[in-house]
Amino acid sequence: MQRMPYLFLFLFTCIIYSNTLWNTYAIDDALVLTENKFVKKGFDGIKDILTHDAFEGFFGQRGSTLIQGGRYRPLSLVTFAIEFQLWGLNAFYSHAINVFLFALTCLLIYHLLFLMAGKEHDGPFYLSFPFIASLLYAAHPIHTEAIANIKGRDEIMAMLFSVGALIFSIRFAKSNHFLDLFFSILVYSLALLSKENSITFIAIVPLSYYFFTNANKKQYMAGIAAFLIPTILFMLVRSTYAPTGLLQESREVLNNPFALATKGERYATIVLTFIYYLKLLVFPYSLTHDYYYNQIPYVTFGSVGTLFSLVVNAGILAYGISLLRKKSVLGFGILFYFITFSIVSNLLFTVGILMNERFIFMPSLGFCVVIASLLSYRQLPKFMNPQVVLGIFTSLVLLYSVKTFSRNYAWRDNFSLLQADVKTSTHSSKAHTTYGGLLIDKADEQKDSLKRKEILEESIDNLNTALKIYPNNGDAWLLLGNATYKYNKDYKKAIDAYVHAFKSKGNGNFDALYNIAVLQMDNNMPAMAKSNLIKANTLRPGQFKCLFNIGESYCRINVPDSAIIWFKQALLLQPNDALTLHKIGVTYGKQMNRLEDALPWLDKAVALDPGNIVYLEDLAVANGLKGNFEGAIKAAQAILQINPNYASAYYILSTSYLNKGDKVSSSKYLQKAQSLQGKR
After folding, report:
1. What are the tens digits of pLDDT across the range 489-510?
2. What SS3 state is found at 677?
3. CA–CA distance from 596 to each of 429, 552, 588, 628 (Å)?
4. What is the distance between the alpha carbons of residues 199 and 440, in angstroms, rounded to a whole number?
5. Which are the contacts of 197, defined by CB distance < 8 A and separation ≥ 6?
6. How many beta carbons lie within 10 A of that of residue 357, not counting itself?
7. What is the pLDDT of residues 101-125, one digit of tens each?
């Protein structure tokens, strides 16, 4: 019978998250996996993962300064690197590992609570405190973000190893075996390397000893030291590889939720979120991954919501403290919740977003312990029928499970997630921005022109909504420029949007300047385009597309010498780019009349892209003008192998044979060329 709870929990957890296995990648999966340069090196990237801020693999060196305090959580990234080495980008395996790790976490939670409860777990296992708490934790919908989103593995692993370390620590307190203490140090080190919020378990250890063991003073000191020593070592390593200080706050409201708030508004709004978290724990109905500005508007301490939250949370905390003397499981659950919640609450330091459901992946165990302590067999009042309690418990688990299973579908991919969550995060500028950008991508895939315009209209609506919420949203302005131009080719409106994007980014937005220049090139303003491209190049040097287009702009204003210089700079970045090689050849040949210099570049372009008719035609013409008629004939014949009805190739053959003195062949090809041209 003792195996039954473990088996049931494992199968139950796997079943309710089974539909995530067919999900692809979403949101921050790009940051940690699909577009992380360290992870995509496989085994060779593990050293870089262990010696850099978690964001550097995606953002480059600037990634370490984007978020206050930096991020050092390499262990989940190491697992992603191993997966990439073994399977490449295969979302099925990544989701399967997340589900397995979460199922294992739920088993360890049951084992921990079973170990803590001691003789208090008698009675039917399905009405026991450990089983009720563990099953509620497995079923709770608020955990979907951590499990259904591959990136959430850092949360799962942090909880898994923290609980595992606590199990060894409790065993040490009960048995005094120092091997258990050694394993607690080892496993807790893995928890810290998974995610920083594991640090709160330094306080959970003495709390657990007090409630559930008869540990003596030496055991208390040893147990705390076993968690404190790896924490100190971790903080030293972290300060080396994630050097951004906790006081270095971003001025961008989408990275720092309090950038536009007064000090009073900051803390009043933080307190307000406390009641929202409790609401989601009790009624996890309207779930969303996005609580960015201005989904939860700033409030003051005069706000009814803030005052209500303050009274409720302070009351619950005070009640939990009052239960210390009784050593009540209910008190342990309350204190566990507030201790583990403290580090993600924004009270101590900014965590980059005002609120997020994955932040209470760890604290929610305290909530489940509280509910379980009220429903478990040993806690039931004499007048309450166990079957009634079983019905309440079953109904709660069933409701949670249905919500969890259905919510998993929203995480299928970026588009599904944003399509669902933009309806919940109606006041989030970021949600509308991201959804607007995804709609642009969807419009690009649409062949039906009317449907494409409908999708672009929806994109423009969402981006305008994002800008109403936050007028300085540079990303929204940038995407609005893209959508506007794709919608009706109104380059003036599009450029105006890009100008706003440039200003919103503090005169440092490469993409805005580059896009302005591209539209200027497309609309016959090459001189203005050149100026903006050169400015863009100073903002972000070494961008191939920018260097190439600077060369193109010089071609358009007929300064071929400068064009060649910029094209050759672009080639340093991509030496085998056929288009750039072709442009150099054409510039030498057509604009500078230097055929001898043109031919080697055109030859290289054709060698790299032998199926490109334009390249072959220019090579044929250049050879003909240079007097290399055999070379011209060879290139023209190569064109006809690709397209037998290409009239220009026959004209080239006619001219080449005529220059060789073969009038018969010349006449034959001329007639063929004229007949094809006549058919047009």
Report:
1. 999 999 999 999 999 877 678 9
2. helix
3. 57, 21, 9, 11
4. 42
5. 158, 340, 343, 344, 362
6. 21
7. 999 999 999 999 999 887 555 567 7
